[in-house]
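Students often ask why we bother predicting the structure of a whole assembly rather than each chain alone. The short answer is interfaces. A chain on its own may look different once its partners are present, and contacts between molecules only exist in the joint model. In this exercise we take two input lines together and write out one structure for the complete complex. Read the inputs first and try to guess which parts will touch.
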Amino acid sequence: MKFREFEGEVEEIVAESCRASGYKDFEADVSLPPNDEYGDLASAVPIRVAKRSGQKPGDVAVTIASKAIEFAKKSKYVGSVSPHRGGYLNFSINAPRFIADSVSDIASGDLGAERKAGEKIAIEHTNVNPNKALHIGHARNLVLGDSLVRVMRYLGHKVQALNYVDDSGAQVADIIVGFRFLGLPDEAPEGVKYDVYCGDSVYAKVNQEYAKNPSLKEKQSFVLKEIEKGSGEYADYTRAIVRRILDSQLSTCWRLGATYDLLNWESQLVHSKMWEKIFETLKKIGYVKYQDLGENKGCWVIPDAETGEEKVVVRSDGTVVYVAKDIPYAAWKLGLSNDPFGYEVYADDQPGGVLYSTTLEGKKSGVHFGNAELAISVIDTRQSYLQRIVAKVLDKLHEGASRRYMHRSYEVVSLSKKTASAIGFEIEGEFAHMSGRKGLYVNVDTMLGKLKEKAKVETRKRNLAESDEWVDAVAEAVAVAALRYELLKQDPDKMIVFDMEEALRFQGDTGPYLLYTYARARRILDKTEGKPRVNLASAAKLTTKKEIQLAKKMSMLDISASTAGEYLSPKEIARFSHDLAVAFNEFYEGVPVNKEPDPELRDARLALVDASSRVLAESMRLMGVPVKDRI
RNA sequence: GGGCCCGUAGCCCAGCACGGAUAGGGCGUCAGCCUCCGAAGCUGAAGUGCGAAAGCUCAGAGACCGUGGGUUCGAAUCCCACCGGGCCCGCCA
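Now the answer. The structure tokens for the assembled complex follow.
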């Protein structure tokens, strides 16, 4: 997009004019000034030069500026250069040319980043145990992961979105225990989602019973052993139940706008024997060691050179611990071991395209997964230690492999005191961590329901003539927008203390604000007699600060997205979208479009509305925030 | 005991990667703006001066950036220590 081109020119000018002034080896750093009264881009290079040469920064700035002014004459988008006595070089943009070019690029559909040779990237996210419905903590994972998938694709990478299903763990076994040993019905009551039923009723009930009746725990280990076998009555039954719960979870994921390319099953990973091969290699190189005495007697362990501690990977009974399942999964993603899987269609009705599943039956379906150049795992921060162990082991399998394995960690979502109280838990501090066992959580479906209810009221108020179906569809979009944006905009390193009341806000820095802004822009375009078109002459009439601000902002999407990709930080897109929406609303309130008497100027403004709304829609798409023409 | 993360207005958050020009938003509070392209929005913080008006000009709420040191011409940003909060360090997943 054009702002980046402008930036490139400025960098070039700074570098050339430094050289021409006899200042060598200075990085031509360019940044946005704190205030646009200084200009549209600035460089602090004179300060650095002055530091080395002992001159005054302001004098250096004048010297370099005199050269820069000459170089700028050849440039396309640099309007003027001026030195600042504090030691800055300030560059202003050639607004008419910049706006005319930006608008026509965007109007022709060019919303993308500079296409580089895309990498093959595997992004793992969601990974919810198939025994319960998604709660808002899982939603944070999903939103982060799915937005990363979208951003990476926008940047031109070839992305595989992976969802890991732990279909053989204790949590699944608990559901089976409930059905088979506590006599709980394996059908949900009328009107209750299957995953909600299993999580809210079955899982909670089974855990209560464990506390009362410890012998029930033996049933759990019995079920686990049966599942492990992979065949037989219990294994088959579990497979069917897992599938029902998973499908129910997937409907929620899809509702949130997240889709996947492949499901990886833990049971298949275990049966694939990948671990056994890796284990042999690790034994051969002496990285895993057998302990014949001490507290880890009878176990295979890997040492941690830094802490001097060791991590058990194979228990004394020969079974593997959790991290030893993550290692082959990571190795498979990066193509560090042979691919034991076939691939088959799991769902062809997924909104974003076919969802595949691994299989050990050998069917390939003509598709390929794994073998990625980069693997990103969206996993909460509590697993950072284990993820570091996985990375270290990868390095032992293949020199430097850990550089291609990235853990996108994030803090958990907890509940505010008020919200905990609203669902029947009186707590000590200001917030409480969610707990599936205790039943202390807010389900995604519940939250979307509340958001939608409120959105319906708000939407109906503004659209008295519309059908119920129409209002429903809009309210659904508003609900999803509100939740996704809320979970995405905050830094992943910060805990979200979720408060129901606050999350129900549709004003200010929220998803619905973006939807509203887009609809506002569409309204202008729908009502107009004019045509969105602009040329150099009419662009020159766009002279107000609000118009220029909007034009600049809209052509920075690619810059924000690059940052988001580089730092695995999709909240950059949230900042961008909000800034763009603010710029649009200020423009909207500040200058007339359809009421503008000068038809040339009106059309130029229309073109600006058209282009900026396209960019807004694209940035919303990158966050998985739905877009509606009217709300 | 070892390690990771967080601490910025009454509340919630940006900014920290790459040190630089008046620390940005949102909520809330208060005051305005719908006969004027959608008020899920915008403007302002009793205002001053110029002007017929659009508007311009000046002024202008809320922050010891957890605390204390250090590095630097310059620190919210880098380094160290401490305080407060959260998390992890399992033959659970």
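Check your guess against this: The radius of gyration of chain A is 29 Å.
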